[in-house]
Amino acid sequence: MSVICDVQRPGQSGHLTSTWPRITVVSPSYNQGQFLERAIVSVLAQNYPNLEYFVFDAGSTDNTLAILKRYGKRLTYWTSESDRGQSDAICKGWNMATGDVLAWLNTDDFYYPGALHEVGKRFAANPNLKMVCGAVALVDEQERKLRVKRPVAVAPEVLLPRANIPAQAGTFIRREIFESLGGPRLDLHYVMDWELWLRVGLRYPPSAIAFSNKIIAADRQWPGTKTLNAGGKDAAEMRKVLKELFGSHKLNGQLRPFERVAFARAWWRQSKGELRQGQRRLALASLGKAVCLAPTSFPAVKILRQVKRILFGSWRADAPALRPALQPIANQRHA
Questions:
Q1: What is the pLDDT of residues 84-129, one digit of tens each?
Q2: Torsion of CA 90, 91, 95, 98, to 10 degrees
Q3: Which CATH number does the domain housing residue 74 bear?
Q4: Is 244 left (phi over 0), alpha (psi -120 to 50) or beta?
Q5: 8 A C-beta contact, residue 162 and residue 190
Q6: Domain boundary at 173, 193, 220, which?
Q7: Tens digits of per-residue pLDDT, 129-148?
Q8: In this structure, are 73 and 211 located in the same domain?
Q9: Would you place residue 199 in the very low, low, confident or very high pLDDT band (cuts 50, 70, 90)?
Q10: Alpha-carbon gap, residue 137 to 146, rounded angstroms
Q11: CA distances (Å), 233 to each of 85, 121, 177, 299, in order?
């Protein structure tokens, strides 16, 4: 079933109301009815004077449709129909957008009060600004703050090894980026934000990116998040992107030395994902690949901690079978 609602959609003329740039927020949605209303209200309650808000639902089977109908008259546009994934929903929204500033907010996340005014003020003050990254709070299911992730440099030397990346929920881009670089890739389902930030970092100078320590949004950490259930698929997507970049001429010579550590961190990420799924032998093998690629990039205590997590609770049963996989790790650390 496909349900579409198009209410009070602004005209296509102009991007500005007074001094506030129009901000388009897109929420991709699928079976997250327990959080959807919180996300919608957090956007609408901003009372931002030049807001465009789309919700693209992928045909949810929970209470999502009832919530969308309840708030339909306050949304610029919403639809509930099958799509090709999260990136597809975001790109559909950005293609429809009339805003000068674009963002997406996952439906299990939410904005804090004043977020859009902070972002709009930054873009209005500097027409050469292409991207704004704000602080994001990591919260639990009850919205209790676990920690705050401050914005980090959108620089290839930081992003390639995924040492740290801007928190997606607190990141906003100028429409020009979407028009010149495109949006999230449809073939990526886990690391599309990281890959898009990489494109931005490779194209634009640091002066085109601003940072705010104001807590813009909350990133909800709960057992149903796609990232926590990736099982290493996110790391596989990382390696796919890295192979494309290092196998082409898109990177200058100064970035080539990051190749081994970038792939090593991808394997480390895969080890963590596999461990979450209980795939301990695979997790140990991925850890070994990470250490073999860049043995000095990981402190010994960090490696031992990960080995302990993999083996914890079942040493007697599985230690003999896992011992051969441990040997390459030990050899690399003593090389």
A1: 999 999 999 999 999 999 999 999 999 999 999 999 999 999 999 9
A2: 30
A3: 3.90.550.10
A4: alpha
A5: no
A6: 220
A7: 999 999 999 999 999 999 99
A8: yes
A9: very high
A10: 7
A11: 15, 38, 27, 25
Residue 5 has pLDDT above 70, yes or no: no
Asked whether the whole model's pTM tops 0.85, one would answer: yes
Q: From 220, 249, 272, give the residue that closes a domain.
A: 220
The answer on pLDDT for 26 being more than 60 is yes
Q: What is the mean pLDDT of the chain?
A: 89
Nearest one of 325, 255, 265, 326 to 295, comparing CA atoms: 265
Closest of 261, 255, 262 to residue 194, by C-alpha: 262
Q: Cα–chain-centroid distance for residue 137?
A: 14
Provide the percentage of residues in the chain whose pLDDT is more than 70: 88
CA 306, 189, 22: angle at the middle one, nearest 5? Answer: 120
According to DSSP, the residues that pair with 147 across neighbouring strands are 138
pLDDT at 253: 87
Are residues 61 and 140 both part of a single domain?
yes
Residues 104 and 209 in one domain: yes
Same domain, yes or no, for 207 and 299? no
Residues 132 and 277 in one domain: no
Kindly indicate the confidence band of residue 304, based on its pLDDT and cuts at 50, 70 and 90.
very high
Residues 6+ apart with CB under 8 A from 49: 17, 18, 20
Supply the pLDDT for residue 177: 98
Q: Which domain holds residue 253?
A: 233-334
What is the DSSP track for 145-190? Answer: EEEEE------HHHHTTTS----GGGEEEEHHHHHHH-SS-TT-SS
- Residue 299 CB neighbours (<10 A): 9
Q: Quick one: 292 exposed, middle or buried, by C-beta within 10 A (0-12, 13-18, 19+)?
A: middle
By residue count, the chain amounts to 335
Does 171 fall in a domain?
A: yes
Is residue 106 domain-shared with residue 158, that is, in the same domain?
yes
Average pLDDT of the segment spanning 14-32? 83
Cα–Cα distance, 98 to 179 (Å, whole number): 12
Contact 64, 31 (CB under 8 A): yes
